[in-house]
Amino acid sequence: MQEEGSDVPDWVLKMLEDGKESFYQTENGNVYYYDNGDYKQQHFNPKEINLKRLKDEKGVIKKNSGASLIDLGDGVAGLEFHTQGNAIGLDIIKMVNDSLEEVNKNYEGLVIGNQGKHFCVGANLGMMLMAAQDDDFFELDMVIRQFQNMAMNIKYSEKPVVTASFNMTVGGGAEVSLPAASIQASAETYMGLVEFGVGLIPGGGGTKELYLKELRNLPKGVDFDLTKVANDVFEKVAMAKVSTSAEEARENGFMDSGDSISVNPDHLLHDAKEKVLALAKAGYQAPKREKIPVVGDAGYAAMLLGAKSLKFSGYASDHDLKIAEKLAYVLSGGRIKEGTLIDEQVMLDLEREAFLSLISEPLTQQRMQHMLLKGKPLRN
Questions:
Q1: Where along the chain do its domains lie?
Q2: How many helices (H) and strands (E) does the chain have?
Q3: Shortest CA distance to 186 belongs to which of 77, 72, 272, 89?
Q4: Span 344-364, average pLDDT
Q5: Residue 217 CB contacts under 8 Å (≥ 6 apart), including other chains
Q6: DSSP string covering 280-307
Q7: Average pLDDT value for residue range 79-87
Q8: How far is CA 273 from the centre of its chain?
Q9: Is there a contact between 309 and 85 (Cβ–Cβ < 8 Å)?
Q10: CATH for the stretch 52-288
Q11: Can you give the pTM of this predicted structure?
């Protein structure tokens, strides 16, 4: 600054003369700031969990290139994603599974959260596009199976898993949040299943979990139209609806009455940790495996009719219609009778088959490439 002719305050020059070269110092997990010739300890609100300071103080339980498992204190572990955009690849999938194993043995529960720009922008699109262009469908099939298994492990974990969702929580980020025991969302949370925008449908169980969440939120003991529920989920996924807030995510069915919202984003991880402890104290029991009532042939026809109406009105392309057909087939549970109960794995298999068939399409690969290069969807 002096070389450029700028004025430097005298106290800064004095500080440097005294051999002190930094405004802040960290020692034994405590932060000290320079003030009038000496360093004074900085005190933080206990509700503000800082993952970097925690890692400096306690280290990490385990980590790889995609995520780190951290001890948040009070018997709660935290899983922090740290890839670009917190996009989910095989490294994060492995860490989620390893973390659940560790937590089920030694902790009260797990918080999945981070302090990056976004909670998670989805699965690693670039990796999937490269595999598809190389016709490496064996690897893609393996990755999707592993993603689905990870989501099921989160759902059926013995100990409660709470996701601390904030900002962009889309695609794979929503698929991690939906099966969790509870969601603790920041008020600014943009949640949605956006795969349709890149020519795909959710492949990690997102369609199934959103459908189940809507079914669970229906009033008990009231007759309801299963077709309406399926159509509602079909519309949200096909329109790639993303909430503009956590409250809207609740209205869209991504959050239910057991999920909470943190108004102060600095308190999000603390609130999620408290939610884990509350669930553990209440004697948390992992959910029992569910049978899913599906709309079958009749519901498939109704969803297809809606998609074809959009096509004939000029609002959807031929490729949009093809994606919608695949989505309708998944939600209907296949060509079966309305009201049939199917196992979750059947719907997961349908999701995976639809995903693999769509990613092999040149038009879908064009959409994926356009999103990676331009950051916005291509309508082809």
A1: 10-42, 52-288
A2: 14, 12
A3: 272
A4: 97
A5: 253, 256, 257
A6: HHTT--PPPPPEEE--HHHHHHHHHHHH
A7: 95
A8: 17
A9: no
A10: 3.90.226.10
A11: 0.91
